[in-house]
Amino acid sequence: MRIFVAGASGAIGIRLVPQLIDRGHEVIGTHRSPRNAERVRALGAEPIEIDLLDPGVVRKAVLGTEPDAIVHQATALADLRDFKHFDRSFAQTNRLRTEGTDALLAAAREAGVRRFVAQSYASVRYAREGGPIKSEDDPLDPTPVPAMRETIAAMRYLDEAVTAAGGIALRYGGFYGAQNDGLVEPVRKRQFPIVGDGAGVSSFIHLDDAAAATVLALEHDGRGIYNVVDDEPAPVREWLPVLAEVLGAKPPRRVPRWLARLFAGEAVVMMGTESRGASNAKAKRELGWTLRYPSWRQGFVAAYTATNRSAGRNAHPPSRTSLSQA
Ligand SMILES: NC(=O)c1ccc[n+]([C@@H]2O[C@H](COP(=O)([O-])OP(=O)(O)OC[C@H]3O[C@@H](n4cnc5c(N)ncnc54)[C@H](OP(=O)(O)O)[C@@H]3O)[C@@H](O)[C@H]2O)c1
After folding, report:
1. From CA 313, how far away is CA 326, in angstroms rounded?
2. Which pairs from 300-303 meet CB under 8 Å and 24+ separation?
3. Helical H segments across the chain, by residue range
4. How far is the CA of 256 from the centre of ligand 1 (A)?
């Protein structure tokens, strides 16, 4: 297929493009920053510079390149720091998930594109009640914390718009696998604490595994929503000390909920204490997906050992087991 990858220069895009080419697909890869043209070309794709928030430009790019499939991986999260003002930090990404999705879907319809896959998110979205691991059929949180309302609404908009158009929304777990992952510096500097009892459950996914699931979704017939997460959703109190150990950092601090609420905001408290994880059973069953890093336990070591080596630190392989997939 000829595949139009919106966001080819991003963290997932740079893993996805080579995997698509290995499978024999032709790739048109978009980027926003002019300096990324060469990066996309070096991956083996035909680069095209577009602003996804300009529907005229998107229409021209899609009609001009005549793809069989489109995958939307564009976000604006490179400088994400402020989780207290969550919606403000996600504002541009929310526009990419609403207006950007609309622009791509309209262009896809006009160009007769057969397949459409888009990036969504699994963690923090499922209802904060019942068991710790949720499937795609479980209810979403009906009352997201106020600071996250617009962000949660944008993800929901994307899921609904894409599946209504016959496409696939991939609810990824928290990405890791690059040496500049957002978690690394805060954990190393002990700025990422365990809040309260640390019972909030996180679902992670290594970027290589996320890209592999995306290739399979593009090659799959039919619409749907899939959680793309690893086999081991785990509470913060369990994975965070392991990550600190792997990074050669001191153990994480513990802070009470009230203090975290004051300094970091309600969203951080919710993620640290109440969030639910996600099950990957449907993606494995229907897409035939297998994971290279079934747990963050091996994945963190694989991803960060090189970082530690270059910084002269020792990495420690983790040992215990936690929640397992339903
Ligand atoms: N599920 C998750 O946990 C998740 C999801 C997404 C991102 N992240 C993390 O967030 C960090 C930043 O992500 P990233 O490195 O992928 O960078 P990013 O800044 O989020 O960019 C992602 C892609 O979207 C493109 N883009 C941004 N604005 C655009 C626009 N208006 N129109 C068209 N394309 C646009 C970027 O192009 P240019 O780079 O050329 O500007 C890039 O190709 C990474 O650590 C990543 O792992 C995590």
Report:
1. 36
2. 300/176, 300/242, 300/243, 300/246, 301/246, 302/177, 302/206, 303/176, 303/177, 303/178, 303/179, 303/181, 303/206
3. 13-22, 37-42, 55-65, 86-89, 91-95, 101-111, 149-164, 184-188, 207-218, 236-246, 257-264, 266-273, 281-287, 296-310
4. 32
Q: How far is it, in rounded angstroms, from Cα 73 to Cα 16?
A: 10
DSSP string, 279-304: --HHHHHHH----S-SSHHHHHHHHH
Backbone angles phi and psi of 245, in degrees to 5: -65, -45
CA distance 40 to 28: 9
Report the distance separating Cα 214 and Cα 230, nearest Å. Answer: 14
* Tens-place pLDDT, residues 15-34: 999 999 999 999 999 999 99
pLDDT at 316 over 80: no
| 223 Cα–ligand 1 center, Å | 24
Task: Give the C-alpha separation, 76 to 124, whole Å.
Answer: 19
* C-beta of 36 in contact with ligand 1 (< 6 A): yes
Question: Among 35, 48, 54, 77, which is best to mutate for testing ligand 1, by the most ligand atoms less than 8 A from CB?
Answer: 77
What pTM was estimated for this model as a whole? 0.94
Contact predicate 15/211, CB 8 Å: yes
